[in-house]
Amino acid sequence: MILGLTGGIASGKSFVADSFVECGASLVSADLLAREVVNSGSPTLAKVVDAFGLQILTAGGSLNREVMAQKVFADPLARHRLELITHPAIAHLAECRLAELKKSPHDLIVYEAPLLFEAGAESRVDQILVVVIDPALQVERLLKRDEISEAEAKQRVTAQWPQADKVQKADFVIDNSGSLEQTRHAVTSLYHYLVETVGSGSSRP
Length: 205
Prior knowledge:
By secondary structure, the protein is α/β, with parallel strands linked by helices. It is 55% helix and 12% strand. The mean pLDDT is 92.
């Protein structure tokens, strides 16, 4: 089965994804696919440059992610314009990678997608796990991770769907507000439940 893994920014999705891999799951990361589709010289990057100008490129011709992030998190219209360009390319690549994995036996395939709901990608997965975190801790971790101001951190959090909305659409929820060991234990328990109890026959309606 394919488990969609999503959650808010700086909620710990990557740690949860890595913990699933440690248990034996296969992983497809939408974040890595998003980087792949805008590699230097790609048609998608060319479309992004057409939409936002050469200032979003580094001197070497690759996407300047910091500049791009500042543009899209400060402007919902700019973010929507970027998503209209990148989401179809990410979707195509994700479907190809997931289809390839499904050709051979896998106990569990995890599709880590921060914008799973926003991109309307629920149909790619059988079940959905949402990772949540205490809002104050979320901002604190984002400040440390991205070295940005508190105002910028809060702006990036509010640019995404609220955690509560994601939880309402989830099949499973893991709270990552505690220790890493607690989260790892929750992942291990869910992995065994999905593999042994749910199996490949359970899918979303």
